[in-house]
Design a protein that fits this description.
The protein has 312 residues and is an alpha/beta fold. It is built from ten helices and nine strands. The longest helix has 18 residues.
């Protein structure tokens, strides 16, 4: 690892440590960093130990992305499901960040969303063919977001890979950029988060396409910013007690994004699409400005770390 890269990585560590545990832990950065091409794996591993507060915590092994952003993505079509359409749609929140930054130009920017509730990638293939027939210049990139467990389910993962490969081939045939939107593990399920991150990243590397690390940002935010709830519960059914009073029982797994979750997703997309930090953006999606600022900062730190040593 070069001295310059060591310096950049040290700065990345310092930003996390300053926010999480204060200046007293900066001395940890004097420790010689391990030499590894998986720089983000190292960063997240150390952060995991700090966040979890245990030297015995199992270090996750995150695969390094081999493709990094190289140009602004101004015209994007999103294909996904409820993860994308919650809270007025991630495309609208991303668009609001762009507009609030003064970068939106009529005719030059376009963000649209096509979703199917509970949808899988293969279920979008027919719609994709139709949408790709739009006039040249309508889209610059197509963002693919799968079902919550599709990439890691033993019953679904083969079809997921096949469908993404088919979609990417069709998108490339139209001279457009296919992009994978990495989803997140259910609340409190760190193992699922790592499995999803690696499934999306390994497939993106195989296809030589960009993957946006939304799932990694959720994983880090759950531990670094526990005061911000990224999830909303789903209703299972209504119940009545012995007195006939009704109450609601919720599903065990929390997976759909709260407004803060969708906002974080939009911030990671902004950081990835424009290669700049959303920090200080005045659009907060109704969140407390202080919380929004925390999510803005985290999204930039995660994307910077995730794309380290990726090829241009």
């Amino acid at each position: 690892m070069s001295a310059a890269l060591n310096a950049v990585l040290s700065a990345f560590f310092a930003a996390f440590l300053r926010d999480v545990v204060g200046d007293a832990l900066k001395g940890l950065l004097r420790t010689k960093l391990s030499k590894s091409r998986y720089t983000f794996m190292v960063c997240i591993s150390l952060c995991s130990l700090l966040f979890l507060g245990s030297a015995q915590a199992e270090k996750p092994s995150l695969i390094q992305a081999t493709v990094k952003p190289t140009g602004d993505v101004k015209k994007a079509l999103f294909l996904g499901n409820s993860f994308s359409f919650y809270n007025n749609g991630v495309h609208n929140q991303l668009g609001s960040l762009v507009r609030a930054s003064g970068e939106w130009q009529a005719g030059e920017n376009r963000l649209r969303l096509s979703t199917l509730s509970g949808g899988h990638i293969y279920e979008h293939l027919d719609d994709l063919d139709f949408l790709l027939e739009k006039p040249k210049g309508t889209w610059q990139a197509v963002v693919l977001q799968g079902h919550s467990n599709e990439p890691i389910s033993a019953k679904k993962q083969a079809r997921f890979k096949k469908s993404v490969k088919q979609a990417a081939k069709r998108i490339k045939a139209k001279k457009l950029q296919p992009i994978l939107l990495m989803t997140w593990g259910y609340k409190g399920q760190s193992d699922m988060s790592i499995q999803l991150a690696n499934a999306y990243t390994s497939l993106a590397n195989e296809l030589d396409i960009l993957v946006v690390p939304v799932g990694v940002a959720f994983w880090v935010a759950e531990q670094k910013l526990p005061n911000i709830d990224l999830f909303v519960p789903d209703v299972l059914r209504a119940m009545k007690n012995q007195d006939g009073e009704a109450s609601i029982r919720y599903k065990k797994d929390l997976k759909h994004p709260s407004d803060a979750g969708t906002y974080l997703m939009a911030c990671v997309l902004y950081a990835s699409f424009y290669q700049k930090s959303p920090e200080g953006n005045i659009f907060t999606s109704g969140l407390d400005p202080r919380l929004a600022l925390q999510l803005q900062k985290l999204s930039w730190l995660v994307t910077q770390g995730f794309y380290k040593e990726s090829k241009g």
